Amino acid sequence: MAVVLPAKNAVEKPEPLKAEVKGSIPSWLQGTLLRNGPGIFSVGDTRYNHWFDGMSLMSSFAFKDGEMIHRSRFLRSDTYKANMAANRIVVSEMGTMAYPDPSKSFIVKAITFLNHTVPDFTDNGAGNFIKYGNDYYATSETNYIRKIDPETLETLDKVDYTKYLPVNLATAHPHYDKDGNTYNMGTSIAEKGKTKYILFKVPSVSERDKGKDTPALKNVEVICSVPCRSMFTPSYYHSFGITDNYFIFIEQPYKLDILKMTTAYMRGVSWASCLKFCPEENTLIHLIDRKTGKELETKYYTGAMVVYHHVNAFEDDGHVIFDVIAYDNPSLYDMFYLKENSSPNDEHFPKPKYTRFALPVRPDKSTAFGENLVKLKYTTASAVKEKNDKLVCQAEVLYEGLELPRINYDTSGKRYRFVYSNYVDEFGQSKQIGKFDIETKEVIYWNEDNCWPSEPVFVPRPNGESEDDGVVLTSVINRNPDQSSFVLVLDAKTFKEVARAYVDTELHKDMHGFFIPQGN
Q: Edge-to-edge, what's the strand order for the sheet holding 443-447?
């Protein structure tokens, strides 16, 4: 999870490279694994301050008939083009404030500030990939996404969310349904004097729009708007939950100070410095009805926490159960600052907790104050009634040290048993991946000396007979002498290796990935 390798610039390999396969890749595995993450950390004499800021390097691993083809390419964003043309970093990122002209005076900075209530963000989509309609986009969390060709990794159109709905920030972790619709959410900052969170749906491509070169976002539908608790300090969030009937949004006391953000350029500080954690405040959990777009009247609260990744959510006997990876504070972000002459073991890692909440959907109003309304026998999570229809929720910790969780997405929104993830030690080292069994609490690991696996991605076998009937894919940085990096293929049931595909090039630490089945 943490940056354990030197943040040196990558070298792209846009031409297809056939991998050397050891073992046997299942014949049914047909499709492409896309990976995305930062690949360029310095331009000219300038350097990014934070690992997340690096310019996007996209990688693809295409599986067909027992073989694998690899290629990689830098995202040709406007950010990339401007930085390369200037031979220096001129576009600001979350942890790095940049100036097109370093000689700009305070007055010029002040004029720039007055002209931009909300700053113009980067289009360096180094965080993940999103599918809208039939198109794929490289994305981070700004209002800009870049359409890409998933086969060649060429950069195509730049799309601005704000042309279709009023969101200045949006998550890189949407949800998908079986009909091809995509659900996502974003923050609308000071729009008509209000700051709110917007849940939206991007419909699948209709018959009339097939073959047209128009973004699926043009048919976007706003499902719900949730008012922000404080207009100028909206909550930061990285993902959200979904079930058959509800959305789950965690409004946590990890906030973006908009007023500080608008003056960051003038003050010469990064936008990341405008994030603040308020441990004295509670976390508010919003439960939203998918059919009506209305938030439930019951107010769900828990203590201060920081959540980046939702794992899954489902409904059972009048409850919504949702699982997240929770932290006691936001110091995870600080782990990724690129400090000169520092060791990856200089600081301790804030322990991630695989955490389960249970929310009674329509609690009995006659229930006495102080009573726990959660009646499920398989969880110790509680929801205690207080005044004004307020429920104070305490979570069950299922496991500590688990991050970058992935599931069989066919179980998204439904009760599930297995999660595949990276496992981290107290220093943030991620040298192994594992399969966690929620029912038995058992973990099966894969690891190898001097190897750093990426986020594992589960791919189901067509017509699979069980939740774990499929394979788990992970790209592995191999630092053993005279050995190449590789993509590992594990049997998801046993977590035993069935194949590895060695690539004759260097792989780099990335963030998230997306598997595209052949024909999609």
A: 402-406, 418-423, 432-437, 443-447
Closest of 318, 330, 385 to residue 358, by C-alpha: 318
Cα-based distances in Å from 210 to 22, 77, 134, 145, 240: 41, 26, 9, 21, 30
Please tell me the pTM assigned to this model: 0.93
Q: Return the beta strands (E) in 193-329 as ranges.
A: 194-202, 221-227, 241-242, 246-251, 254-256, 275-277, 283-289, 299-302, 306-316, 319-327
Sheet bearing 246-251, strands edge to edge? 241-242, 246-251, 283-289, 299-302, 390-394, 382-386
Residues 420, 346, 52: CA angle, nearest 5 degrees: 55
Q: What is the pLDDT of residues 188-246, one digit of tens each?
A: 987 777 899 999 999 998 655 666 677 889 999 999 999 999 888 999 999 999 999 99
Q: What is the pLDDT of residues 96-141, one digit of tens each?
A: 988 776 555 444 444 444 444 456 789 999 999 999 999 999 999 9
Q: Are 220 and 201 in contact (CB under 8 A)?
A: yes
Contact 242, 413 (CB under 8 A): yes
